[in-house]
User: Fold this.
Amino acid sequence: MKKKYIVTPWEVSGEIDYDKLIEEFGLKKIDDKLIDRIKEHTGELHPLIKRKFFFAHRDLDWILDEYEKGNKFFLYTGRGPSGDTHLGHLVPWILTKWLQDKFDVELWFQMTDDEKFYFKEDLSIEDTNSFAYDNALDVIALGFKENKTYIFSDFDYARTLYREAAKVAKKLNFSTVRAVFGLDESSNVGKIFFTCMQSVPAFLPSIKYGKNIPCLIPHAVDQDPHFRISRDILPKLGFYKPASIQSMFLPGLLKGGKMSSSIKESAIFISDSDNEVDKKIKNAFTGGRDTLKEQKEKGGRPEICMVFNYFNVLFMWDDKELNEIKERCKSGGILCGECKKILSERVKKFLNEHRKKREDAKKKLNKFILKD
Ligand code: TYM
Assistant:
C-alpha cells in the first residue's frame, strides 16, 4: 500500500500517522508510566508532555536511570538557519528550556548553517551564517541559562567540530546515508557528508569534559533519521548512544502539512506584524460548518481545527480553559470567528513580548556563542 505521508529532515508532507511512524522509525511511545517517572523528578508536567505532543522517545527511560544514579545528562538541540524562526521551531526549544530548568543541565545548541547552504539552492554561506546569529536571538529570548547554554554555528566552530565529524565520517558508508535519507548519486557531496556534523554535538561534551556523558535530544520527529545514524556510530567511537524525546509537528494554519517556512501564509513567523497575524489567523482552517445555522445545530469539530490545535500546543496551557472551549465549540456555543479572535490576541501578545526579549538578547549574544 502506498504511504500517505513523507517524513524526512528535508521534507514533511501528507497526513502523518504518528502511530505508524513509531513503528516505521522504531521509536518508543511516551506512555503514562514514563510520564509519571518524569513527574517524580520535575514535580509538575509541561503541557507539551502532559498532552503527549511529545509522543515518542529513544532511551528516555535510560536517561532517567542514569540521572537517578547521579549521572547527569546534557541537552542537545538545534536549528537549520534558512530564514526567520516560526512558531513550529519554538516547540522543541520551549520543552528544552523547561528540561534545562527542571534538571539544571547544560544545553548545546547547534546552528547548521552548512546544512542549509548545501540544501538550499538560493542561499549563500553569508546568508545562512547570518541567519544563524539572528535565529540565536530567538533561542536566547526563551530564557536559557547563560552559564549553561552554548550556541555555535557549524562554520564558525568548524575547527572543533570538523575533527570530530571526521571520526563519524570514517565509520559511515554512503549506502547507509542513501538508505536513511533517500539521497542519490546526483546529490552534492556536502549533503552526503552533512549528517556527520549533526552527530558531533551528541558526544562533544564527553570529549570536552573527558568522560562519557549521556545526551538527550529534544526535537520534532523529522530529525530522527540523523540520530539513528548517531546511535549506530557513536558506540563504535566509545560514546553512549544519544537519547531523544520527539514531538509531533505544529501544523500550518491552512489545511494539512506541518508549519513550514516555505508556505508563508500558513506559518506564523516571529517577525510577523500584528496585521499579518490577524490576516493569517482569519484564513485558518477550522472545524466550522458551512452555515451559521448548521454550526449552531451540529457544533464545530475541534479535532480537525487548526485554531484549536494552536490552543492545545502553545496558546491554552490551562486544562480547564481548553476543555471549556472544546465543549463550547462542540455544542455550537462558540463560533470560529470568536476562537480566531482569542488566538490572534494571544499570538500577538506572545510575539510582541518575545520580540522585546529578542532585543535584550542582542546585548548578551556573545555570552552564549562558542567560536574557534
Ligand atoms: P530545523 O531548523 O528544520 O528545525 C528546528 C527544530 O524545529 C523542529 N520543527 C518543528 N517542530 C514542531 N513543529 C514544526 N512545524 C516544526 N518544524 C521544525 C525541528 O524538528 C527541529 O527540532 N538539522 C536541523 C538542525 C539541528 C537539530 C539538531 C535539530 C542540528 N542539530 C539537533 C534538532 C536536534 C534543522 O534543520 O532543524
